[in-house]
Amino acid sequence: MKPGILFAFLLACCQLVFAAGTLETSLQHRGQLFRVTHEGKTSYLYGTIHVGRDGFYPLDAVASRALLDSTALVIELDIREDKQFQVALARHGLYPEGDSIQNHLTPATLDKTVQALARAGIALASVQHYKPWLIANLLVGAEMEKNGYQRSQAVEFALLAAAQKQDKTVRELESADYQLSLFDALDAQQQEQYLLENLADLADGDSLKKSQALVEAWNAADRSGIQAAWHSATSGDSISAGFMNRVLLGKRNPEMAANIERIMQQDQVAFVGVGLLHLVGDEGLPQLLKRRGYQVEQLY
Q1: What is the reported pTM?
Q2: Closest CA to 170 of 272, 264, 286
Q3: Taking the CB of residue 295, how many other CB atoms lie within 10 A of it?
Q4: How far apart are CA 245 and CA 235, in angstroms?
Q5: Parallel, antiparallel, or unpaired for β 72-75 and 33-38?
Q6: Cα separation of 45 and 33, whole Å?
Q7: What is the largest CA-CA distance in the chain?
Q8: How far apart are CA 133 and CA 268, in angstroms?
Q9: In 3D, which of 187, 276, 275 has the Cα closest to residue 6?
Q10: Rg for the chain (alpha carbons), in Å?
Q11: Could you tell me where the DSSP H helices lie in the chain?
């Protein structure tokens, strides 16, 4: 399995054209871009999505210039590093030899899972050692790919291609082991419920609608649409919403803010690309950095 599966979650190679510094200003804004300043130092926060499609690149001149003017690209995870991902996947996403998902799901849930896998063209035997959370995320990713959204065209690949072309340092905010361990921290009952919720959303089309709404809001730099996508992902009493609110955003955002602060203190002009939803809400990165005394200006 390739590292791209990691980015089916929020909810990774192909060559992308990203001619930073030479783009026309007519290119539309995508995502959200913030300028962060403190004691004479400047960095940028850019909201990414972990899938893409034809027509998304190159990025607009404002984001391209910000990246060109930066000395380092900072992303959640360097998605080119396959070895570390495979180790983390084996540790947190797979059952040990001799065990399988058939031993951890109720018959009713297993039956629904087999049916969903069949619709996606995936045999149970090929994923029977996967834990429920991983199967759920795999199925969501497969649904996105079936509808034209490719993990291989994630924004991170465009940013990494530009950083390589510009001979920039690339830094990670997190690690594959850390990211996958968050899902693995769900207990057996929570993992089964997480799988069931995603199966239900896939069956009635809500999963695709939610993903498309987020992608379309990113593609148009639509602030109200981005806010609506964030509200949809974090509201309600489901395991998925609680996990997004408590862990994927609530736990990680303060840690990311502290890491960004450390990077800025090292006299780096950093271009920080993180998942779009990390930038939204009172506990989003812009607000957390403001509370730490940074000046944060939304450029779009």
Answers
A1: 0.87
A2: 272
A3: 12
A4: 8
A5: unpaired
A6: 6
A7: 61
A8: 37
A9: 275
A10: 19
A11: 61-69, 82-92, 107-119, 124-127, 132-146, 155-165, 176-184, 188-204, 206-219, 223-234, 239-243, 252-265, 285-291
Tokens, residue 256: 């990311």
CA gap 19, 57 in Å, rounded? 9
* pLDDT per residue as tens digits for the range 211-269: 999 999 999 999 999 999 999 999 999 999 999 999 988 999 999 999 999 999 887 89
CA distances from 200 to 60, 207, 212, 253 (A): 37, 8, 17, 28
What tens digit of pLDDT does each residue of 81-108 get?
Answer: 788 999 999 999 999 999 999 999 999 9
CA atoms of 139 and 269, how far apart (whole Å): 38
Domain boundaries, the chain: 32-93+150-184+206-298
Token representation of residue 150: 């490719």
Q: How far apart are CA 46 and CA 234, in angstroms?
A: 21
Structure token digits, residue 188: 């057996």
